[in-house]
Amino acid sequence: MKSPVIRVGIVGCGKIFPAHLDAINNNPTAYKLVAVCDSDRKVLARAVGDNSAVPFLGYDKMLSGMTGKMDMVVIATPNALHYPQAVKAIKAGYDILVEKPVAFDKEKVMKIVSEAKRLRRKAYAVLQVRYNPSIAFLKEAIEEKLLGKIRLVSLTLRWQRPKEYFLSWRGNIKIGGRILYEVGIHYLDIIQWIFGLPKTLSTNTFRLKHKNINFEDTVFSDFIFENGAVGHLEVTLAAEPTNLECSISVIGENGFIKVGGLALNKIDCAEFLKNNKQADKFKKELGVIVETKPNNYGKYQGSSPNHPVLYREIAEGRGISMGASARAIDFIEKIYRAENYLTK
């Protein structure tokens, strides 16, 4: 029996809106855009474009006005609005898909999970970097224990952001949060997803370029995992003149793997100490893994645009559950709780 089309309403029609529209258009038998909502009339008009979606300037009006005509609400508004809007949508009877970060603390994420379970609604999170082919390669190699016991895991994100990037809501710590919530979360999610959460951390934060904000643009953190492996992360938005890299290096007793590119979107290198059929299989795969292209926002680039894959997974009954995103938020909270702020 063919599954019914999922009728989608999107609230927040800014920079990430085209990625969601593209995902819907790439899954035409599974989704239909039926409503769009934004508080800015011009932005809303652009979002409506040539499609037949019903426009709303008010979120509450969309929720009430689309009763019986909409199945899922996609929340793509400024970060601080995600949690209250998610709760409202669930209580109004809709499934939800929420852009990152779902909230600024783990407990709020789990409240959404609990409310969705109570009301029998589905709740998904946008952590689409998990779908990079390069990440699938890394995860499988770790699960197959090709590197043996892991000794070290290192995340390096060296990105450029123009000064005007923080002139919007992103420069308001109460609305945007801090840089790990805004840009680091996808890659911290990959660390915790594959290697688990660390047990001890030490963090230093700096303001190296963006002096007009009251939080850091650079984070260094060292940590230790439960199994004794050590970890390190460097996340900065102070690179010039463009993004330099976003990579994860993993060193084990039997080899190493580095997933790199601009957004963990390709395999830089992989070597294994032991030559066996398993290792040979992975080496052959290196040459056929497709490098994904990061989102292009004009003056800067972002994460990999795997929203069509995420939407397809949801339509097929999978997707990334809201509960899964709680661990990424937990990781960020642990990093900031261990913070020493070294530059003012």
How would you describe this structure to a colleague?
- The chain is an alpha/beta fold and 344 residues long.
- It folds into 2 domains: 6-125, 3-Layer(aba) Sandwich (Rossmann fold); 129-302 and 321-341, Dihydrodipicolinate Reductase, domain 2 (2-Layer Sandwich).
- Helix content is 33%, strand content 24%.
- It is built from 11 helices and 14 strands.
- Strands 13-12-11-7-10-9-8-14 form an 8-stranded mixed β-sheet. Strands 3-2-1-4-5-6 form a 6-stranded parallel β-sheet, with helices on both faces.
- It is globular, with a radius of gyration of 20 Å.
Task: Provide the descriptors you would attach to this structure in a database record.
single chain, 344 residues, alpha/beta, Rossmann fold, Dihydrodipicolinate Reductase, domain 2, 2 domains, 8-stranded mixed sheet, 6-stranded parallel sheet, 11 helices, globular
- Mean pLDDT value: 91
> What order do the strands of the largest sheet run in, or round the barrel if closed?
13-12-11-7-10-9-8-14
- Separate helix tally: 11
The main pleated sheet reads as: 8 strands, mixed
- What's the CATH first level of the largest domain? Alpha Beta
* Quaternary structure of the protein: single chain
Radius of gyration: 20 Å
Query: How many angstroms does the end-to-end distance come to?
Result: 61 Å
Could you spell the SSE succession in H and E letters? EHEHEHEHEHEHEHHEEEEEEHHHE
CATH architecture label name of the largest domain: 2-Layer Sandwich
Under CATH, the homologous superfamily of the largest domain reads Dihydrodipicolinate Reductase, domain 2
What is the number of beta strands? 14
